[in-house]
Design a protein that fits this description.
DNA polymerase, domain 1, Beta Polymerase, domain 2, 4 domains, 24 helices
Length: 583
């Protein structure tokens, strides 16, 4: 069975975690993490590259040693160094890292200070109050660990949407090759574009598949024969359930064409949305289920989703809105939002180059942006406080400004239609002051600011810290406002509503960071921002030319948050965008 990029990246990340626990050279640990990021985000599989004879050392952060390890993984599915490190590292330490907020560094500290080797050891240390005595932890950290332990079940977390896509895409392509398959769609939370996915619900129609003489046996044989299938839980003529090698459950249903729309509606959900629609049907004397809309025994709708909504006097409601959060009332009143579309974005306002922690040069990023038809691209490398990302000091930023001005002249002469904007992702220091002086900020088109450290401040102090940063007349956008990493790091405590109100008062904007690990703002945060009149920047936080692909995940999140094109600042042409930045 072929090994996927995601699996290679996971092995490298796990190896980096274990090496960090052992206290290995930080540069060695970082090399594996960087390699994991490169492999995970690469558009072609490593297996295909190797088969085509490609030189993997030409990829960012992949040297000879890592290229050989990738080749071994592709050939054998094994990573001998990982096996070796796992044998000398307590297995329970890996389990500890599944607890949100406990990365490799903290697990190492707990292990070294209190000889904690298991979840049970951790529980005992919390109960005895020993953790608060460790330098860098304290009572607040101990309480957070206690709360996370209460939530921890030991089960695998829900799969991030981007990873679910990587699992689903080849499976869908495989299913399309089954005899007779006509339509195919992934329903459930995947279709609603939730940031994490539990399992995959796939619906298929097939020519004659449900006729008496031609059951969907061929489709099910094809499905259960997929080379990623680890376990067949159940198998029938119209429904089968399997577990894939990655641990994800997949349900496949073959439905009649006449019921396809009703099945899409039913299995897309959400449950609360479906119940509300069914209640509307009951008031009209209808029964609504996965087979259609029925008046008595007569099917009156169900071939399309639109027909299901038509039956209860509602317009079609986009899947992203189907959470029973007011969408039915808005639909009934003719006030559904015209949700923002990916092609309405005119540029990206959060981009990193190899001047700090990006993979590609300024010219390469500009070229990729121009090829995508962007009207503008903001260069927002890190500022000096974020030393791990090689942040820019005042002089280095001034040098970059001159380089951008020079490149803009070339772009204008060539008629590329792209304007590079001078910016920076500026660290908000603990007291709310900014990482660089106002003098150099005067040279920029706009400024992003962000919290990158001291996540453990109290809710009040963190809120005041952010608001003080927004007080600075140079600041325009608060980037990744909660600091969360999905399945890895909880959001820091702060008063989002107060920050949004403060942004509105100061003429500032909030970023919806489209990195699939972040998706920060949440959908609820987007909705709150819209209600408070705060505009949003949907930003890729691109660290390579491929990073612009992440914008579509930001659009998904924005749509779940009811955002329209006017709610998003980077749907505007350049002149109007720059006018927004004049505080």
């Amino acid at each position: 069975m072929p090994i996927h990029n995601r699996e290679i990246a996971d092995r490298f990340e796990h190896l980096a975690d274990l090496l960090e626990i052992e206290g290995a050279n930080p540069f060695r640990v970082r090399a594996y993490r960087n390699a994991a990021r490169t492999v995970r985000g690469y558009p072609r599989s490593m297996a295909d590259l190797i088969e085509d004879g490609a030189d993997l050392t030409e990829l960012p952060d992949i040297g000879d040693d890592l290229a050989k390890k990738i080749a071994v993984l592709v050939d054998s599915g094994e990573l001998p160094l990982l096996d070796e490190v796992e044998q000398r590292t307590p297995a329970a330490l890996s389990e500890l890292m599944k607890i949100e907020g406990l990365g490799a560094k903290r697990v190492k500290i707990l292990h070294d200070a209190l000889d904690i080797d298991s979840v049970e050891d951790l529980r005992k240390a919390v109960q005895s109050g020993e953790i608060r005595a460790i330098e860098g932890f304290g009572e607040k950290s101990e309480e957070k660990i206690r709360q996370r332990l209460e939530k921890y079940s030991g089960e695998e977390r829900r799969t991030k949407l981007v990873e679910a896509e990587e699992i689903a895409a080849p499976l869908v392509e495989y299913l399309k090759k089954a005899d007779g398959v006509k339509d195919i769609i992934i329903a459930g939370s995947y279709r609603r574009r939730k940031e994490t996915v539990g399992d995959l619900d796939i619906l298929v129609t097939a020519t004659g598949a449900l006729s008496a003489n031609s059951p969907a046996t061929a489709v099910m044989d094809h499905f259960t024969g997929y080379d990623e299938v680890e376990e067949i839980v159940s198998r029938g003529d119209t429904r089968s359930t399997v577990y894939l090698r990655c641990g994800m459950q997949v349900d496949l249903r073959v439905v009649a064409q006449v019921s396809y729309g009703a099945a899409q509606h039913y299995f897309t959900g959400s449950r609360d949305h479906n119940i509300a629609v069914r209640k509307l049907g009951i008031k009209k004397g209808y029964k609504i289920n996965e087979y259609g809309v029925f008046e008595g025994d007569k099917r009156i709708a169900g071939k399309t989703e639109k027909s299901v909504y038509d039956a209860v006097d509602l317009p079609f409601i986009p899947p992203e809105l189907r959470e029973n959060r007011g969408e039915l009332e808005a639909a009934r009143a003719g006030k559904l939002p015209r949700l923002v579309q990916p092609d309405q974005l005119r540029g990206n306002l959060h981009t990193h180059t190899d001047a700090t922690d990006g993979h590609d040069s300024l010219k390469a990023m500009a070229k990729a942006a121009a090829e995508r038809g962007f009207e503008y691209l903001a260069i927002t490398d890190h500022s000096r406080h974020l030393s791990v990302a090689h942040g820019l000091d005042e002089q280095q930023l001034l040098q970059q400004i001159r380089a951008i001005d020079k490149l803009n002249e070339t772009l204008e002469k060539n008629g590329d239609g792209l304007r590079l904007l001078k910016s920076i992702e500026l660290d908000i220091l603990e007291d709310g002051t900014l990482d660089l002086p106002d003098g150099v900020l005067d040279e920029l088109d706009f400024v992003l600011c962000a919290v990158h450290y001291k996540f453990d401040l109290s809710r009040q102090k963190q809120t005041e810290r952010i608001l003080r940063a927004l007080d600075n007349r140079h600041v325009n956008i608060l980037a990744h406002p909660s600091g969360r990493l999905i399945n890895q790091r909880e959001a820091y405590e702060f008063d989002l509503e107060r920050v949004l109100e403060g942004a509105a008062e100061r003429g500032c904007f909030i970023e919806l960071n489209a990195q699939p690990d972040r998706l920060d703002l949440t959908d609820a945060g987007c909705r709150m921002a819209k209600e408070l009149g705060v505009k949003i920047s949907i930003a890729a936080d691109a660290h390579s030319t491929r990073g612009f692909d992440y914008l579509r995940f930001g659009v998904d999140q924005a749509r779940r948050g009811w955002l329209e094109a006017d709610d998003v600042i980077n749907t505007r042409p350049l002149k109007k965008l720059l006018a927004l930045f004049e505080r």
